Structures are given as C-alpha cells and as structure tokens.
Amino acid sequence: MKKLSALLLILIIGCNYSPKYSSLEKSGGVPVINVAENLDTNISSCFMLSEAATDVDFIKLEVTTNSMIRDIRNVVIAEDYILVDDYSEGVFRFSKDGKFLNKIGEKGNGPDEYLYVNQVILNEKNNEVLLFTGRGIKIYTIEGSYKRSLPNTNMEELFSGIENRILFFDDDLFLNDKLPVLLPKKDLWTFALVDSTFTIQEKYFNPAFVGKESDIIANKALHIGWKNYWNEGFASVDFYDNTFKMCYYGGDTIYEFNKNTKEFLPIYIISLGERPSFEISHQWIKDPIFFNYLWFSNFYDSETYLYLFLGKSDNSYIIRYDKTNGELRSYKSESLIKEINLPGSPNFIIRNRTNSFALINDISGGSPFEVEYKSSNGKYWVDVITSSDLKENINIADLKRQSVKNENSKAQLVNLIDESTEEDNPILLISKLK
Fold it and tell me: Which InterPro entries match (predicted)?
C-alpha cells in the first residue's frame, strides 16, 4: 500500500529549483554524466510528471466473475487494449476504458493450457500473445484462443537460471538471463538475440563477468544461510522513442541496440565514483557496507530528460539529465533499507532498498506517480493503485483545491475516490510520454 510522507505532501504544493549544473564531459565521444561529484551540490525540491508526460488516464479495471485481479505482476499496453498479468489468476485483456474483454488461455493440464505463466510477451503486429509457461512458450490470439506451442522453449532449454525474461523489440526477440547460474550453460551471456524459433543468433556479454566466470559458477548453488550465494537484479531496459536501451546490473554504461549492426553501442557513461567489489555487490545476503556505495538502479528515458534512479546510505536520488545541454539536477529523499531475517539462519539478514522512482503528479494531482512499469512500446509509464490507496492517501478536499495541468484528469480522480469500494480491482494510472 502506498504511503505519502509529510515531505511529499508539501512538495505537491510547490517546488523550488536550485541553480543548474552542466555536465558536458565526453569519453570517446560518449557523454559522461558525472553523478558522483554532484549528488549534493545541485539539489532540487522535486521533479514534476509533466516534464516527461502529457496526460494521465485512470483506468478502473472492470470486476466480473471472470476478471478478479489479485496481484498484478505486469501490465502490457497496446494501442487499443491492455494486458494484465496476474500472479495467481492468469492473463486478462481489458479495453482502454477498463472493460473486461477476455482471458488469454486457461489454467489446466491440457496441451493448450498452462499451470503458471512466467511472462507475457505481446506481438502486436501479428495480434499474438506469447505466454512463457512452465511447459514452454504457447501462442494465443489476442481473443485468447490457443494457436500453437513452440518446441524446445522450456526454461532450462533457454536459460541458465530460474529468474529470466524475454524482450520483444520491434521485430527482434531477446532473451535476458541473470545470476544465479543454476542450470548448465556453455557461456555466461546476459542478452541473446533469437529468431522466431528461439534459436540464438547473437550473444551479448556483461563486461563485469570477464575473468570472474569460474567464481560466478562456484557461487551458483543456493544453500540456506550461505552468504556467498551470488545473484543480481535484471539489466535496466527502456524502449522510449522506439529504441532499445539497456544497462547491465551494476554497470555504469547505458547502451543502445543498433538494428543494422546488431550491436549494443554505448550512448551514456555514468560516473559513480568508488565501486563495490563484484563479490560485495552480488552477494544475496548483502553486507551493510554495500549500501555505503552509490548504486545505480534504473533509468527512465523521455523526450527532454534522462532520469537516473540511485541509492546511497540512507538516501535515494533521482538525477535529471537534460539531453539537450547536459544540465544536471538532483532530487534527494530519505531511503529505507528493509531487513528480513532468513528463515533457518537467524544470523543472516536479507537487506533491500525499498524506495521507488516517483514524480510529483502535477497533471491530475493526488499521490506522486510511481513508475511501476514501462511499456514495451516505449510510449507509457504505468502506476497501480488500489481503492484503499485512494481513500487513505488522498484528502479529497485538498485535491479539489490543488492546481494541476489537467482539470479533467483531476475530476476523473475525484470521481474515482468517491465511487471506489473495497471490492474493486486495482486502478491503472497510465501516463502518456511526450
């Protein structure tokens, strides 16, 4: 459940900016974004959603006996409909105004059914939905009818671990693997370009793995309480402006895929200062010392700005980089590091930073817009809220007085708060990028 801090409530009222800092350094012709030296020297009090987006739509997902949403895992946005992937219930298709249209396939043991879904991939050009299931990849029509299954696409045939994903960009399919390595694999690629049968055509290797392959494999197996179990988060990806950009986990370079050469070419270098060792950064049981380093988590591209989301010690940072002139601004907030005792090994504590990338929603008002999903077509950011989020976190009287960019969008939000009940499905907030 989302919570609004007193600080963020103040920020909704107004924002003041500090002087600009210009970062026009280059390395081999690639712009260098000097983050480490400017974290606390050019602080802004907030960043606005309207800097990146033109509007916000609130989509109340229809509740029927066939469309009960429990726990959303992903949201896929097409031109005329929305796919919602639910951990427990399967994959649903809704219209852009939230009307339930159909489910994609059904759970079961039949050849056209699935027991669970690892991931949903939309091929909008072919009007096909690919479900990466526990029995390989199954292809359905957007109306939910089964078409065919792809042979040799079980998880162990495509990947080296149990946490992985498939990315569909334009007409290209990519596999994205990540540590831990649990299944045999000849080499430790992170991305692989595949054809329509999911046969690998090209492999892409994380430069941080070079020379560490034997250590990575040695620290592959999960033993409860074993501190040296190595894993990592997914590479950061973004598809804004019909481009495929990515940064390897723990990396300091953002790459862009060149469709002609089939290469990932560097487009930004992020200067982060002193870095933790590979062992410190990849241990599952994070040593507290890890959080003393500046850590780059994700990036969010837009027309004018590139936003970087980072953490260090007790703080989270959003760095806003102006792509037109290299100007940097930084927003600093208090960070939370969640600690959970590992069952069976009370001496070990799992530590994770819990803060998320969020901008002040000056378009419709209300809670800050937390970007939970970036659309695979690069056009939208998505936030998910519940009826309890609306009623607990937004004072409707304050909302009505709030100055916003779009009064119609604010009115839509006010109506949602008035009409929401505990039985409602989650509500999607979809911001359309400029």
Answer: 6-blade_b-propeller_TolB-like
Would the pTM count as exceeding 0.90? yes
Task: Determine, yes or no, domain membership for 255.
Answer: yes
- Cβ neighbors of 239 (< 8 A, separation 6 or more) are 169, 245, 374, 375, 376, 377, 378
Read off the pLDDT of residues 134-172 as tens digits, 9 standing for 90 and up.
Answer: 999 999 999 999 999 999 999 999 999 888 999 999 999
Q: DSSP 3-state helix, strand, coil percentages of the chain (rounded to 5)?
A: 15, 40, 45
Among candidates 51, 52, 41, 50, which has minimal Cα distance to 18?
A: 41
Quick one: DSSP state of residue 182?
-
Q: What is the C-alpha to C-alpha distance for residues 245 and 432, in angstroms, rounded to an integer?
A: 19
Half-sphere exposure of residue 419: CA atoms within 13 angstroms, side-chain side:
10
Structure tokens at 106: 């059904």
Strand order in the sheet with 263-271: 26-27, 30-34, 263-271, 253-258, 245-247, 236-238
The pLDDT tens digits of the residues spanning 264-299 come to: 999 999 999 999 999 999 999 899 999 999 999 999
CA–CA separation, 188 vs 181, rounded Å? 8
1 found inside a domain: no
d(CA 296, CA 35): 10
Report the number of distinct structural domains present in the chain: 1
The distance of Cα 293 from the centroid of its chain, to the nearest Å, equals 22
